[in-house]
Write a structure and sequence with these properties.
Elements lengths: L1 E3 H4 L9 H10 L4 E6 L5 E14 L2 E10 L6 E5 L9 E11 L3 E3 L2 E3 L2 E3 L1 E3 L33 H4 L5 E5 L11 H12 L24 E4 L7 E8 L8 H9 L7 H13 L4 E4 L7 E6 L5 E3 L5 E3 L5 E4 L4 E4 L3 E2 L12 E7 L2 H11 L4 H8 L6 H15 L3 E2 L4 E4 L7 E3 L2 H8 L5 H10 L3 E3 L2 E3 L10 H12 L19 H15 L3 E2 L5 E2 L2 H5 L24 E2 L4 H13 L5 E11 L8 E11 L5 H14 L6 E4 L6 E11 L2 E9 L1 H6 L7 E6 H7 L15 E10 L4 H12 L3 E10 L8 E10 L8 H16 L4 E2 L2
Parallel strand pairs: 12-15, 27-30
Antiparallel strand pairs: 1-11, 2-11, 3-4, 3-6, 4-5, 6-7, 6-10, 8-9, 13-21, 13-22, 13-23, 14-21, 15-18, 16-17, 18-19, 19-20, 24-26, 25-26, 28-29, 30-31, 31-35, 32-33, 33-34, 34-35, 36-38, 36-39, 37-38
Length: about 800
């Protein structure tokens, strides 16, 4: 935001220098990036009056001018300009003058004739025809302003304003306006603020806006308020110097009186405005609605835009005429022959404007303001101000009446004033009256102990916000330095302790921690042989990716681990034992953002790594986090893993992970010539079933009893099912069940295997008798018989 100090003086009186002003506003919370004094590069350039023009004796294209410059005698200047006339007022560079860019002018001879200076064009003064529309692009600047001969050119053409550049944070959209910064200035310097209520005379001829326009707001959720007025008998001409000067100092190019008025109001109040040429509004009807998919319109910048149904547009009875809050259509603007205009002062939802501007690749002054949030309560005052300026400039006749479609919530926000809390919070000692004075200077009002937040302060929500307002105006540099009181006790949460345990366990097992990007290429899913109809291919797409290789958010961490494995293998690293706790992003139907699921992913190759190494790592992790026994079942339908060498971990029917050997075809896709083993565990699920409580168990008082069983079963029967049956049958007296032999061969039938278990039993109530131990064995054999397992004979 560039602020014209001359414009600011309409609202507050300050005597500070630009440097003092910049420092004071920065300290009160409005950061100043810098300031620039217009015309400061220009030296010794004055207004001159051409007294006579004579031909150069030795040059057909040069003339000799005698120019009065307020000195005892005229100066003689030789020029090649053809537009200079006797009696014209012109900028004159005297001997020793300096122009923008450091160009110096000295007297000298041109073709043998003394020239004591130079006549200037607009470009040489750093100006354009937009600043002075009556001037010509190529030629001497013939001044038509009311000025005196010999007057410094800066004051003569109002090139002496100071422009202060502010960096406005996103939470203070009210400061994207002259009035907003004037309010900050008044509070900072403790001076009165002069505000002006627009006054519009109107046509008073019986004409009414209803004869010209109808407005319908269909998308009231995206457009809380739409206010419009009509101006007839419009006269398009340049704006007066004072308006052009203020626009120029604010970084806005003057165009014509009607367009300049909309820009002037936007800068003054922070409320974007648009002026429609009523000729191009079909049916004299404005409809604020969502666009239809595929609708198109050429915007004022000459680019065809295609809309989607989530975009808000302004249309007439037939077609779109503007992108709401962003830019008007090609034929919605003001033209030289415009006679009737509609001034639009509307409020659009910031999120909607931001999404639309981003999708269309457009960013304008209007969209930048709407994105940060604007109160709907400002639309009426701003459209009245625009019409007041129309009457002030004689740019047309304001038709009586106004259309105001208002669906906004006008209930003001309130926050309780708590002086004692604020003083403790800030470490200062202010009275309630002093706090109230500060708040009232910023536009707040009081209703008993309740602070009524002004409509333009959308950032105020809590008492801490009020404390910040008081602190910044009081002065951060005045708040005394105090030592912290009380005690600080930092305690990690159970979740942090849990994840720290996992990290420490993996490191103790000899694994390196890695970190990978969460965004991947869609091709990665092909590399791990993910089926075309897999739900995991439904990924969140990044709107502005760095490239195709980083265009989606991953739904599985396995491709990321395989990328690390491939990089290490192809860089001749003989082995890799790595792990990562990384996020998977699963799209959620009922919300905009995906579910973020943390996963522990382990990847191994080389260094004698095999399935059992990986299995042991997983079991160690489960043991360290205190997780009760989990179910392990074979997995044969996951194409990423080797069939028959993959297992799924579950608990109470819920899947908590998978581990196994990666399919050779997947390894081939990653150019890995070694066997790779990967496990993926759901960290959230592990946390739910973990138990960090440690309970004391005394040493056993009574001896243990063991029984060995050799069993025959189908070769395909998983060992885990046998162990489940044994554990369930023995019950509480079971201390340990251990598999110590597996045999396949001639001494057993084909497609059968022999498995041998050692069952250790112990009671904490007394020594187990043979009858109790034998009874447990009988229960085991009965339970095993149900799953097709018998005692080997």
């Amino acid at each position: 935001m560039n602020l014209s100090m001359k414009w600011l003086s309409d609202y507050v009186d300050i005597t500070a220098t630009p440097r003092e002003y910049a420092e004071a506003l920065t300290m009160s919370g409005s950061k100043v990036e810098g300031y620039e004094i217009e015309g400061s590069e220009i030296e010794n350039v004055v207004v001159g009056k051409v007294l006579s023009i004579d031909k150069h004796p030795d040059a057909d294209k040069l003339v000799i001018c005698q120019v009065e410059v307020g000195q005892a005698s005229p100066v003689q200047i030789v020029t090649g300009a053809t537009n200079v006339t006797v009696g014209a007022l012109v900028p004159v560079c005297l001997d020793g003058a300096v122009l923008p860019g450091g160009k110096k002018i000295k007297k000298g001879k041109l073709r043998g004739v003394l020239s004591e200076g130079m006549l200037c064009s607009l470009g040489e003064l750093g100006l354009t025809v937009n600043d002075f529309p009556y001037a010509i692009e190529d030629g001497i600047f013939l001044i038509e302003e009311n000025c005196e001969v010999g007057q410094d050119i800066q004051s003569a053409i109002a090139l002496n304003d100071t422009s202060v550049e502010f960096e406005i944070t996103s939470n203070r959209p009210d400061c994207l306006s002259v009035i907003g910064l004037a309010r900050e200035t008044a509070a900072t310097f403790d001076v009165p603020l002069r505000l002006h209520t627009p006054q519009v005379k109107g046509s008073n001829d019986g004409d009414d806006i209803k004869n010209y326009l109808k407005v319908a707001v269909e998308a009231t959720d995206l457009c809380p308020r739409y206010t419009a007025k009509v101006v007839k008998d419009v006269k398009i001409e340049p704006s007066p110097l004072w308006m052009r000067e203020r626009l120029r100092a604010s970084g806005v190019r003057p165009i014509n009186n009607l367009v300049d008025i909309t820009n002037y109001v936007m800068l003054e109040y922070g409320q974007p405005m648009h002026a429609f040429d009523l000729r191009y509004v079909a049916g004299n009807e404005i409809v604020v609605r969502r666009a239809k998919n595929g609708e198109t319109m050429m915007t004022l910048d000459g680019v065809d835009r295609t809309f989607t149904e989530d975009m808000l547009i302004i249309s007439d009875a037939e077609k779109p005429v503007a992108v709401a809050g962003v830019m008007g259509g090609e034929y919605s603007g003001i033209m030289e022959d415009t006679k009737t205009v509609v001034f639009e002062s509307a409020n659009f939802l910031g999120n909607s404007v931001r999404r639309t501007a981003k999708k269309l690749g457009m960013r304008t002054d209007a969209s930048a303001r709407y994105e940060k949030g604007i109160s709907p309560l400002s639309t009426m005052e701003c459209v009245e101000r625009a019409c007041e300026l129309v009457e002030m400039l004689g740019a047309g006749t304001v038709v009586d009446g106004v259309i105001d479609v208002d669906h906004s919530d006008k209930t003001p926000k309130t926050v309780k004033l708590e002086p004692d809390w604020i003083n403790r919070f800030l470490g200062i000692s202010l009275s309630r009256d002093e706090m109230v004075k500060t708040l009232e200077a910023l536009g707040f009002t009081m209703d008993g102990d309740q602070i009524v937040v002004p409509y333009f302060r959308i950032d105020i929500e809590h008492k801490a916000d009020i404390a910040e307002e008081i602190a910044r105006i009081y002065g951060y540099n005045k708040i005394p330095t105090t030592a912290p009181t009380g005690t600080a006790r930092g305690v990690i949460t159970p979740r942090q302790k849990f994840e720290r345990t996992i990290n420490e366990t993996m490191l103790s097992l000899g694994c390196y921690e890695i970190m990978t990007y969460s965004f991947i290429s869609p091709k990665y899913y092909d590399n791990i042989l993910l089926p075309a109809d897999s739900e995991l291919r439904d990924s969140v797409t990044i709107m502005n990716p760095l490239g195709e290789d980083t265009s989606i958010m991953r739904t599985t961490t396995i491709p990321s681990m395989m990328e690390i494995v491939s990089r290490n293998y192809n860089n001749r690293n003989p082995y890799l034992w790595a792990y990562e706790i990384g996020m998977e992003y699963i799209p959620a139907e009922d919300k905009d953002l995906p579910d973020e699921n943390p996963m522990l992913t382990i990847g191994l190759y080389g260094n004698d790594a095999d399935f059992y190494t990986l299995k042991g790592m997983v079991e160690t992790v489960l043991d360290r986090i205190g997780t009760a026994e989990v179910d392990v079942d074979p997995c044969t339908d996951d194409p990423t893993f080797h069939p028959g060498r993959c297992a799924v971990l579950s608990k109470d029917g819920g899947k908590i992970g998978v581990l196994g050997e990666i399919s050779p075809r997947v390894c081939q896709n990653y150019d890995v010539g070694a066997k790779v083993y990967v496990a993926k565990l759901d960290v959230n699920a592990l946390f739910e079933i973990s138990d960090s409580e440690k309970t004391y168990r005394p040493l056993p008082k009574y001896p243990a009893t063991s029984r060995d069983l050799s069993l025959i079963c189908d070769d395909e029967l998983p060992i885990v099912q046998i162990e489940r049956a044994i554990k369930g049958a023995v019950g509480k007296i079971l201390e340990k069940v251990e598999l110590f032999d597996v045999y396949r061969g001639a001494q057993v039938e084909k497609d059968k295997k022999s498995v041998s278990y050692s069952i250790v039993m112990r009671s904490d109530q007394g020594t187990l008798t043979d009858e109790e131990a034998d009874g447990a064995v009988k229960r085991v054999l009965k339970a095993l018989d149900k799953i097709g397992v018998s005692l080997r004979q």
